[in-house]
Design brief:
With 391 residues, the protein is α+β, with helices and mostly antiparallel strands. The chain contains ten helices and 13 strands. Helix 2 crosses helix 3 and helix 6 packs antiparallel against helix 7.
Length: 391
């Protein structure tokens, strides 16, 4: 008898079970280092098919070098999340499409991690819910900005609850305010089982333009450029700038937000030697009417925000100035992580209505049988797993 998944579906290698779709994201926006994340309107999409072994099949340019076995970040994340709960997942073929450039500071690792968690939840009936998904994704990433933006969509401002050393670790709790935002650890409602404390909001009206270089910047190299600590006075100054950045974004004051984007002291000054085109890209953005421009994550991409209707001018200017780079218009993603019917689904393969949000209010899937003696898995995939993007 063939193995069934948590929903009782028998493997058929020609019928897809479901799809997951996770947006790209841009982090920091200047001084909002390891805290501010923005979901963007292009995504990683993974379709899941039963198979005899785990396989990752890239269907988009740019994914050719990604591992195709269980060391792939999507697969490794799914297996680790299930094993941590004593569940063995049925082997599957993952067919992936993505227009998120790898190693360009656009959240490709966060999208892969969230996709793996969604797949584990659906196949193994883990019943994670969106808040638990966010907690696990932030833990695996090591910082909450890209991870929470990928899960919830929109503009996310999050705080890590570590000891102030490292790159953002620790767990918190996010509560639904009922007004379109999400609040973290509100008074007596603190709960260490939830995601890091965060607020979710919508980005004020603007055009978003990205300049994506034709070279990569590896995470290890970008992080190694940062100092172990900042002088107290400098930290106070840049923290105040980050405060104004967030307040201006929430108030819809693009003039002040744009000024703060260009005033970072946390990371951009230290990474500038690795990014020979950063200053020119930013100068051209301002010359073409941008409110502000900043390194996207650890780079090398730059993200700029212009008045509505002005983004095409900047995109064309960047395309002329950097013909080997990609200049791309984008929109904010407001949906976050999605689970979708398979493009090649049989009747049992449709797991939800097309476009259904991954929501903690959704009914939990049936629990999968526990493995008789499943070995403990690490809480997150090893750092050596590929398909990552620098922060």
């Amino acid at each position: 008898m063939r193995d069934r998944d948590a929903h009782g579906r028998e493997p058929s290698r020609d019928v897809g079970l479901f799809r997951v779709k996770v947006p790209a994201s841009s982090a920091n926006l200047g001084p909002g280092f390891d805290s501010v994340g923005l979901a963007l309107s292009f995504a990683l999409e993974v379709e899941v098919f039963p198979d005899t072994a785990w396989r990752f099949v890239p269907l988009s340019p740019g994914l050719e070098e990604v591992p195709r076995d269980e060391t792939n970040l999507v697969i490794a994340t799914a297996l680790a999340a299930a094993a941590e709960r004593g569940v063995v997942l049925p082997p599957c073929r993952l067919e992936a499409r993505s227009n998120i450039p790898l190693a360009r500071g656009l959240g490709s690792s966060a999208s892969a991690i969230v996709a793996g968690l969604l797949i584990a939840d659906e196949l193994g009936g883990l019943g994670l819910g969106r808040d638990e998904l966010a907690r696990l994704a932030a833990r695996a990433e090591g910082h909450p900005d890209n991870a929470l933006a990928a899960v919830y969509g929109g503009l996310v401002v999050a705080a890590s609850e570590g000891d102030g050393h490292g790159d953002g670790h620790g767990d918190g709790h996010g509560d639904d305010r009922g007004d379109g935002r999400r609040d973290g650890r509100d008074g007596a409602d603190r709960d260490a089982a939830g995601p890091p404390p965060f607020v979710r909001a919508e980005l004020p009206p603007c055009d978003i333009v990205l300049c994506i270089p034709d070279y990569v910047l590896e995470t290890k190299k970008a992080r190694a450029a940062l100092p172990p600590a900042l002088p107290f006075g400098r930290a106070v100054t840049v923290s105040a700038r980050a405060n104004v950045l967030v307040a201006a974004l929430l108030a819809g004051d693009w003039c002040k937000a744009g000024r703060m984007m260009g005033a970072d002291l946390f990371h951009e000054p230290f990474r500038r030697p690795l990014l020979p085109d950063l200053d020119r890209m930013r100068l051209l953005a301002y010359e073409n009417g941008a409110y502000g421009a900043a390194l996207s994550g650890a780079g090398p991409s730059v993200i700029a925000f212009t008045p509505p209707g002005r983004g095409s001018e900047l995109r064309e200017t960047w395309a002329r100035a950097f013909p080997a780079f990609e200049a791309r218009l984008a929109l904010p993603d407001t949906e976050g992580a999605l689970r979708l019917p398979s493009r090649r689904a049989g009747g049992a393969g449709k797991t939800c209505a097309d476009g259904e949000l991954y929501d903690s209010a959704a009914p939990a899937a049936p629990a999968a049988p526990a493995a008789p003696a499943a070995p403990a898995a690490p809480a997150a995939p090893a750092a050596s797993v590929s398909m990552t993007s620098p922060r």
